[in-house]
Amino acid sequence: MKQVNYIKFEFPARSVNESFARAAAAAFAAQMDPTLEELGDIKTAVSEAVTNAIVHAYPDRAGLVQMRLRALEGNVLEIMVRDRGRGIPDVQKAMEPMFSTGGDDRSGMGFTIMASFMDGLRVRSAVDRGTTVTMKKRIKAKAGA
Amino acid sequence: MKVLSSYQDGRLTLYLKGELDHHEAASALRRISRTVDDYLPQDCVIDMEGLTFMDSSGIALILKISRLVAETGGRAWVENARKQPLKVIDASGIDRVIQISTAARP
Asked: N or C: which end of chain B has fewer CB within 10 A?
């Protein structure tokens, strides 16, 4: 799919940046004319992916989280969240509902919510090299638009 | 986010306002734990009318409040959730363990 527009940015893996990341994603997505519900879905999925990176990737240091958002042809939004942290040994297991290694302030529902709120979810990870989460959402054309 | 509370006749109402994410959840839980310890309520309403955003950290918070209140024989439930938090609640399936009362469900 051909790229129409994109932004890239990075920030330290500190929880105070979670709200910035989802606000930035919502602001970028606005050019695709999403509904309020679609915007809510995007913000939720970004919040989950970024929180995972902040909680899991760098247990003993504040490494970097990179984000790339792309508007693709056909009004598809692609969101990539990447860290260079410790990685996930078993991605399939990590994606099971209620599986969490993040302590009791996480519900273990992050990947489940990403998968159900977006139209595509791909997770690639290598131990000690990092994790890349890529999500896609098709923004539906409005009636009369 | 903000947490306001009121108490009357054994019922504690917690008003959650703003955005609830992982960054906000830990301090919100500390404040709520103190309030629950102060009142030991029979009923605890988690009023989410003012909550404009919630991710799965909110699910963990709701479950913790529910457990906290149950420790002293009380019961907690959610009221007035808006569409976005409600969608997260529905995706999580916690309505199997805690009552969700809302007008926002289509």
From this structure: C
CATH superfamily of B2-101: STAS domain (3.30.750.24)
ipTM rounded to 2 decimals: 0.92
Strand partners of residue A12: A64
Note whether residue A119 is domain-resident: yes
On whether residue A145 sits in a domain, the answer given is no
Domain count along chain A:
1
pLDDT in tens, A80-115: 999 999 999 889 888 887 755 555 556 688 999 999
Q: State both tokens at A123.
A: 């997770």
Q: In whole angstroms, what is the distance from residue A22 CA to residue A42 CA?
A: 8
By C-alpha distance, the chain A residue nearest B93 is A109
For an interface test with A, the pick among B21, B68, B105 (most A C-beta atoms closer than 10 Å) comes out as: B21
pTM over 0.90: yes
- Cα distances (angstroms) measured from residue A53 to each of A83, A87, A118, A139: 6, 9, 18, 25
Cβ–Cβ of B88/A44 closer than 8 Å? yes
Partner residue facing A47 (CB), from B21, B59, B64: B21
Q: Is residue A20 included in any domain, yes or no?
A: yes
List the domain range (segments joined by +) for residue A132.
Answer: 3-138
pLDDT tens, residue by residue, A29-85: 999 999 999 999 999 999 999 999 999 999 888 899 999 999 999 999 999 999 999
CATH at A106: 3.30.565.10
Distance CA A105, CA A101 (A): 10
